[in-house]
Amino acid sequence: MALATRTDRRPSITRTLWDSTVGKKSVMAVSGLIMLGYLVVHMMGNLKIFFGAEEFNAYGHWLRHMGEPFLHSHWGLWATRVVLLASVLAHAVSAYQLSRRDIKARPVKYAHKRRRASYATRTMRWGGVILALFIVWHLLDLTTLTVNERAWAGHPYQNVLATFSTWYGNTIYIVAMAALGLHVRHGFWSAAQTLGAGNARRDRTLKFLANALALVLFAGFVSVPVAVMTGVVS
């Protein structure tokens, strides 16, 4: 009589971690911090627009050629894009799966709605959707120049002015940055708790950092369209 053979294998540690709620939250936290680091650097780069067209366009040129001569032209830029894309996808997939898991765990709505959560917490999911749509718009506007009617390839300063010279360009950007501020405020706090950085002694400091980061990013990014609208940058 032939003996039955077991073909099933134990799942890998990576798969087990990914399938767990803690694993998905950890992926969200790490990918979120990667994107947060990029946002800080990106905002600082955007502020160079206040130093004039020549310096801002030179910054845009440097981005396309960073790493030369060790790297080929655009390789550094594309490497950054790949890391960011991977982070965005990991963040979005984890968020979606955690959301579905939460819904399955609570199929019946609460009889009494509790409103203890902050505004940022309650709008986290919609904020993520708004930011995802904005990323698509932003790329079409200032990267591929598809929706920027007065775009001038190789001249980022002039393209930024063209975007923020329209009411819809300003509206889309400012609304998205408001969503970003709320998302960062709650996301930074959540990431700190997930990665074990939070405790009773650090809570006040972490909350301050979360609020400060959200405010600085919102003010820094929004200062550009406001400067264009008011003629400070022209």
Task: List descriptors.
234 residues, 0% strand, mainly alpha
Structural class, by secondary structure, is mainly alpha
The value of Rg in angstroms is 22 Å
Shape: globular
Order of helices and strands: HHHHHHHHH
Instruction: Indicate the multimeric state.
Output: single chain
How much of the sequence is in beta strands?
A: under 5%
Instruction: Give the termini separation.
Output: 87 Å
Helix share, percent = over 70%
The counted number of beta strands is: 0
**Biggest beta sheet attributes:** none
- Count of discrete alpha- or pi-helical segments spanning 4 or more residues: 9
Low-pLDDT runs of 5+ residues are: 114-118
Average pLDDT score? 85
Tell me about this structure:
With 234 residues, the protein is mainly α. The chain is 70% helix and 0% strand. The protein is built from nine helices and no strands. The protein has helices at 13-19, 21-46, 53-65, 75-105, 119-122, 124-142, 156-163, 167-194, 203-230. The longest helix has 31 residues, at 75-105. It starts with 12 loop residues before the first helix and ends with a helix. The model is unreliable at 114-118 (pLDDT under 50).
